[in-house]
Amino acid sequence: MSWLKSMMEKEPKEPENPIGTVVIGNIQPDMHDTAKEAVRKALKRAGFKTIDVGKSAPPQVFVDKVKESNANILAISVNTVPAKNNLGKLDEALKAAELKEKITVIMGGAAVRKEDAEAMGALFGKNKEEGVELAKKAVGK
Questions:
Q1: Of 21, 57, 69, 113, whose CB neighbour count within 10 A is largest?
Q2: Which tens digits make up the pLDDT trace of 83-138?
Q3: Sheet holding 104-108, edge to edge
């Protein structure tokens, strides 16, 4: 029942003085956004500005939004194996844009494990609480 409660939670207010900016979304072709939405709302409640690129976002969309918003953190939801297979493309796009060393990448979802995140130099969170904790550490809070 807790998932139902989280689905029905109201949209948190935008933080007045955000502690960081997070670009968040489901990497292509992942269309399962329930977990991503729970993490996004938890990040907002924790004081982060969130920029949602939505479901099934191509790697370049993540890169463009990170550049455009000057985000500190990129949060990726990966719930299908085909989406997991696109993590390499995202990693290459981040390197090509010279963003790899400038941002913290956090990922989670049903199709990824801690080892997958580490292989990309990313942090792994298994739930929304861990996602918020990782994001706070990334911005020094």
A1: 57
A2: 999 999 999 999 999 999 999 999 999 999 999 999 999 999 999 999 999 999 99
A3: 48-57, 20-27, 73-77, 104-108, 123-124
Considering the entire predicted model, what is its pTM?
0.90
Q: Which two tokens stand for residue 120?
A: 């990309």
- For residue 57, what are the CA distances in angstroms to 14, 26, 63, 100? 23, 6, 10, 18
Q: What is the pLDDT of residues 28-71, one digit of tens each?
A: 999 988 889 999 999 999 999 999 999 999 999 999 999 999 99
Superfamily of domain 38-138: Cobalamin-binding domain (3.40.50.280)
In 1-141, at which residue ranges do the beta strands (DSSP E only) sit?
Answer: 20-27, 48-57, 73-77, 104-108, 123-124
CA distance 33 to 72: 22
Whole-angstrom distance, CA of residue 69 vs CA of residue 53: 12
Tracing tokens 């298994």 back to the chain, one arrives at: 126
Mapped onto helix, strand or coil, the DSSP state of residue 136 is helix
